[in-house]
Design goal:
mainly beta
Amino acid sequence: MAQKLDIPVRLSLSGPVRPDSEIEVRLLLGHVMETGFRHDSSGVQVPKDILQFVKVHMGDTLVFEAELGTGMAANPMFFFSFTLPPLAGDMVVSWADDQGRTGEMRRPLLYR
């Protein structure tokens, strides 16, 4: 079983939250994204620790997916747009790192 990876997540939406409207999503993941190439002050190599992927689902529909690598900066931020479905539901952000740890953040979207 994979170990849980809790990281700070900021998720904000821009636009009207109602059926069939387009919204912009801003997603910030608080993660160190260590490449494994750096050494600390004593000369010891800092172990590699990067997020491998990030996925965002709205209900059962995948609305965003990113595969990350060593070129991604710490605390990666993503912007994307999509059209909301006719029925309200949960927006689920999930991630996994190269050490097999996984995490998830769930945000209910209620239409006005």
